[in-house]
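=== RUN LOG ===
request id: a7f3
mode: sequence -> structure
chains: 1
length: 267
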Amino acid sequence: MKEILRRSITGVIYVVLLMGAVFLSSDAFDFLFMTFGLACLYEFKKNVRLKGYYIFVAYLALWWAFIYLVHDTTIITILMLLTITVDLALLAFLFSKKAKQFSEFQKFIIAVFYIGGGCIFLTMIPYKQNDFAKFLIMGIFILIWVNDTFAYLVGRSIGRTKLYSAVSPKKTIEGSLGGLIFALVAAYILSEYETNLKTFEWLILAVVIVVAGSLGDLLESKFKRIAGVKDSGAILPGHGGIWDRLDSLVFAAPFAYLVLNIFSYVS
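=== RESULT ===
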C-alpha cells in the first residue's frame, strides 16, 4: 500500500511539473527538458560506464545551438537523420542475441544522438508551428501515457503472449496491442481539440509514437539488463530515474518530428 501511495504521489508531481512547464511559458518548457536531458545523460553514463564529463558539455552546446541559434532547416534535418540513424542502429543492438561491447567513442555517439538528440527534438516539436503549440506537445505526452497505462492494464488482464521475454519478461503482445488501440482512441479525441493536425494525421502520429516509444522502452530495458540494474536511477520514488520515465519519449521524438515535418509539407 505504501509503495502504491508513493508511486501515485510521485506520478502526480511529475505530471503537474510537466503540465506546469508547458502552460507556464515556452522558456519553462525549454529549461525543464534541458534539465531532463542532463538527468537522462547522467543515468545513461552511469549504466554504460561512460568515462569523463565531456558528454554534458557536448549535449549543452548542441542543445543551446539547435534550440536558440540554428534555424537552417538543412542543418536541423542533418541532425534529425543522424539521430534516427543512431536509433535504428540501436534497434539492431536491441534484437541481437550476441553480446555487444561498446567502445568509449561509440558510447559517446550514442549518448549525444540517442539521448541528446532525442531531448532536443522533443523540445523542438512544439515549435513546428509559428508559435509555441502547447496542446500539440501535451497531446504527445498524453498518447505516451495512454499507451503505457493501457498496455499495462490490458497485459495484466488478458496478456498471455510474451513480447520480448529476453529483455522485458512482463510485457505482452496483447498488452502492446491494447495500448495501441487506446492510444488511437485518444488520438481521435485529441484531434477534436488540437486542430493543427487533421484526424488522420493524429492517428498516424499515434501509431509512430506508440511503436517507436515501445521500442525505446525495450531498448532502455536492455541497457539496464546488461548493467544489472532494475531502474536507471532513484530520483523519482517508486518510478526509478528520469530515463525510466522518458525512455519512450526520447526514442520516439525524432520520428515524431520527422512525421510532423512530412505533414507540414504535404498539408
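=== NOTES ===
The longest helix spans residues 199-227.
The radius of gyration is 18 Å.
=== END ===
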